[in-house]
């Protein structure tokens, strides 16, 4: 087990890390990503500004009423998948082919998504109208208020209808990676994951274990039977692909509870790493990744590692930070970095995003790492 608590402890790896990022890749990868889509309405909480203050005030107001000061910051395209592919495109500077299927429009992309994603995508397959999220942004976290209505329209039959049988099979056969995020909001998406695995296993690329990156997102409302169905699906995904399952810390605590773990509320790097190892022992995937706000842990056949993050005390934006982290992890993995390098790429991508409100390039990450290790990294870039 390797627990790195400060970026300086990784000094022996940073040179190789920067060299890899600077070189990028001569190969142009192609991937299929999906499957959600949300319109995010951002609401900045002014007073109280923190979740720690807000929670008790709401509890005290139960049965009566309360009023709080906020700033409406407008609507943006959202959903884990759209934010993930946007970040992945920017990391590679567009030198990557991204195909997206999901809830970005009923028959064609809605304008909010088209403006943001059309320049970044090789192809898009609109499956359903986007769902709606009101994002309450606090200084110490966020509360997502979701209207999941259209999420039930994301089904395997709809995917095949939109893509066409021949195109769907070709994309699955040719993809160098897959991104499947927000299982927690998409009740029928497990059928899509299983079908992709089965088609890939029966196709010309059978035996080529390309990455399959999964992020469940918040799944507290999913039933125990839903979770068990997911767990029974993952061995097949791992049989066919190199599987990466990513959690934020709260989600990891919830999954730990499924197996009788006692990790709730534990945030120390050692505890986070031990939770990753615990989940790896119980879930049939190649890599378990957990990303609290201050770092990230990974458990795999390489071992167990925790890497610190460039913590931001007052993020400009937090919605999308986890998706930028995931895109950074996948990018690092595609570039051939080990688990430490993969986590460092994810942490730096997230750290850049919360300081700027935009996704990073590889050169942005290298510059951030330089400032971070010299102690000159500001709250805003």
Describe this structure in words.
The protein has one domain: UDP-N-acetylmuramoyl-L-alanine:D-glutamate ligase. α3 (80-91) packs across α11. The chain is of the alpha/beta class and 381 residues long. It has 13 helices and 14 strands. The strands form two sheets. Strands 1-14-13-12-11-10-9-2-5-6 form a ten-stranded mixed beta sheet, sandwiched between helices. A four-stranded mixed beta sheet has the order 4-3-7-8. β9 (177-181), α7 (189-202) and β10 (211-215) form a beta-alpha-beta unit.
Class of secondary structure makeup = alpha/beta
Give a quick account of the main beta sheet: strands, pairing sense, barrel closure.
Answer: 10 strands, mixed
Compressed to H and E, one letter per element, the order equals: EHEEHEHEHEEEHHEHEHEHHEEEHHH
- The average pLDDT value, as a whole number, equals 96
What is the percent of helical residues? 40-55%
Q: In CATH, what is the class?
A: Alpha Beta
Radius of gyration: 20 Å
Give the overall shape. globular
Q: How many helices in DSSP terms? A: 13
Q: What is the H level of CATH, i.e. the homologous superfamily?
A: Ribokinase
Q: In what range is the share of β-strand residues?
A: 15-25%
CATH architecture: 3-Layer(aba) Sandwich
Number of domains: 1
Gap from first CA to last CA: 33 Å
Strand arrangement in the largest pleated sheet: 1-14-13-12-11-10-9-2-5-6
How would you summarize the topology of this molecule?
Layout: E1 2-3, H1 11-23, E2 30-35, E3 38-47, H2 51-60, E4 69-78, H3 80-91, E5 97-102, H4 111-117, E6 123-126, E7 131-138, E8 141-147, H5 156-163, H6 165-174, E9 177-181, H7 189-202, E10 211-215, H8 224-240, E11 242-248, H9 249-258, H10 269-282, E12 287-291, E13 295-300, E14 303-308, H11 321-334, H12 339-356, H13 362-373
Parallel strand pairs: 1-14, 2-5, 2-9, 3-7, 5-6, 9-10, 10-11, 11-12
Antiparallel strand pairs: 3-4, 7-8, 12-13, 13-14
Helix pairs in contact: 1-13, 3-11, 5-6, 7-8, 9-10, 11-12, 12-13
């Amino acid at each position: 087990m390797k627990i790195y608590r400060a970026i300086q402890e990784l000094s022996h790896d940073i040179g190789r890390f920067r060299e890899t990022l600077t070189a990028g890749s001569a190969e142009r990868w192609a991937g299929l990503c999906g499957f959600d889509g949300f319109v995010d309405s951002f609401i900045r909480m002014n007073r109280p500004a923190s979740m720690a203050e807000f929670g008790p005030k709401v509890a005290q107001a139960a049965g009566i009423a309360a009023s709080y000061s906020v700033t409406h910051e407008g609507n943006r395209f959202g959903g884990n998948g759209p934010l993930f592919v946007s970040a992945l495109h920017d990391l590679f500077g567009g030198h990557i082919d991204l195909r997206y299927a999901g809830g970005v429009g009923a028959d064609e992309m809605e304008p909010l998504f088209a403006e943001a994603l059309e320049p970044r995508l090789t192809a898009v397959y609109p499956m359903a109208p986007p769902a709606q999220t009101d994002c309450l942004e606090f200084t110490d976290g966020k509360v997502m208020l979701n209207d999941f209505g259209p999420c039930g329209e994301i089904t395997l039959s709809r995917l095949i209808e939109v893509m066409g049988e021949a195109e769907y099979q070709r994309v699955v056969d040719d993809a160098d990676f897959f991104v499947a995020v927000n299982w927690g909001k998409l009740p029928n998406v497990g059928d899509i994951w299983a079908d992709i695995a089965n088609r890939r296993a029966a196709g010309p690329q059978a035996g080529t274990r390309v990455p399959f990156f999964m992020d469940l997102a918040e799944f507290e409302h999913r039933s125990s039977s839903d979770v068990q169905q997911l767990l029974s699906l993952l061995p097949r995904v791992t049989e066919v692909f190199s599987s990466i399952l990513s959690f934020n810390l709260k989600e990891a605590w919830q999954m730990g509870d499924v197996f009788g773990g006692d990790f709730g509320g534990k945030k120390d790097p050692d505890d986070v790493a031990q939770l990753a190892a615990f989940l790896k022992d119980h879930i049939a995937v190649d890599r378990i990744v957990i990303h609290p706000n201050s770092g990230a842990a990974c458990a795999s056949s390489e071992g167990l590692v925790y890497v610190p993050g460039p913590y931001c005390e007052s993020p400009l934006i937090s919605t999308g930070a986890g998706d930028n982290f995931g895109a950074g992890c996948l990018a690092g993995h595609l570039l051939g970095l080990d688990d430490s390098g993969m986590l460092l790429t994810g942490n730096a991508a997230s750290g850049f995003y919360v300081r700027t409100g935009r996704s990073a390039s590889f050169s942005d990450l290298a510059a951030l790492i330089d400032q971070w290790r010299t102690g000159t990294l500001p709250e805003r870039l």
